[in-house]
């Protein structure tokens, strides 16, 4: 069971605007905030997501093949999340649509280049 995922960022304030908008659509508030770190989630809920400047002080980089999947409630929310991502500095990695039998998703990157998707199954 995954408790949370943490992604690195070069600009915490800019990235926070992106994730605040995504989290608002998912009705998921900030649950933790320190200097250099912010996390969104609900205690006792599903996995949360955190952003941090790397502890070692080096520049944050994107993991090749790494992606965070955000579970949407329906196809309309997949589309809204994709649109919100693009409106808040994200880039498209694949518009919302069917991806095989029973899977519907839209792919995007955050302002730091971390890859995410919004999806539904079934």
TrEMBL record:
Alphabetically sorted, this entry's keywords are: Dioxygenase, Oxidoreductase
- GO molecular function term, any single one: dioxygenase activity
- Coiled-coil residues are none
- Domain of life here? Bacteria
Name of this chain's protein: Glyoxalase/bleomycin resistance protein/dioxygenase
What residue stretches are annotated with the VOC domain?
1-121
Entry's CDD domains? Answer: VOC_like
Q: What Pfam families would the database entry show?
A: Glyoxalase
Spell out the InterPro entries in the cross-references. Answer: Glyas_Bleomycin-R_OHBP_Dase (IPR029068), Glyas_Fos-R_dOase_dom (IPR004360), VOC_core (IPR037523)
